[in-house]
Amino acid sequence: MRPSTAARCAGVLTAVLVAAGCGTHHPRTESRVTPGTRAATADTAASRTVAAVVARMDTKSSSRLVETQRRDGRTVTMAGWQVWGRTGRGFDVMVPPADLGFQSLNHSDRMEMRSTGGNLYASIDPVTRGALKGRHWLRYSEAAADGSDLTDAMDKAGERSPIDALGVPAAAGRVALIGRETVDGKPTVHYRATVAADPRVVALKQVPATAQADLWVGRDGYPVRYVWDDGQQRNTLDFQSFGGTRVIRIPHASDVVEMRDKATTSTPTT
Q: Is CATH 3.90.1860.10 the classification given to domain 3-255?
């Protein structure tokens, strides 16, 4: 594994982390009116329905899903589990290595990524020589990569579900009913609102403060699809199932290559 390659990949990985977390949460005390939502046809009944969906999601703490992130011509597709709640945020997903620029570090069709406890783990081809021979994982510290302030903000945001940002416009009656649509063969009802990103993450990463959020709700009252589009990035979450507490396993220390400083780390070549 070449240090320069690992460093470049670290930047992509941390961008993925922020994209997965910064746009989906906002403090429940926020009450400001967003002009973009006012222009839409807000519907009281639609707002009540979405508020109920947000509350229903608060009773869950994990979801099996497929998330697609599109930004600057790059697409990253992740399939697996996302977890949230007071026990901690995280995910365990499979990603095509090419989506992250990991082709030289992982030659399989899919690589595993795990995020838990403020650390991001990425599976690689076994190191072939040196003291770290045989190890299969890189570990990046979120705090080291993006600072403890951003990590703390993301941890706080991670206590809420992926659609929690809709709670504010729903409570204010600012959700619009778009109509009935079929998503992946499932009958759904489509809703839309303008939502606000977590202001702490906005300040730290200079991401847009608001975004358009679209939610498709199935007959069981749970989300089927959620799309967040802030004009710079578009995230699509396709939910497959929901569950309770799920533990993200940490790779054993003996199988991990520590990337303590993404700019200067030196590790054996593969």
A: no
Residue pair 166/213 in contact (Cβ under 8 Å)? The answer is yes
Do 157 and 85 contact (CB within 8 A), yes or no?
no
Is residue 270 scored above 50 in pLDDT?
no
Q: Where are the domains of the chain?
A: 3-255
Percentage of the chain modeled with pLDDT above 90: 56
The residue assigned the tokens 């783990």 is: 121
Return the pLDDT at 72: 87
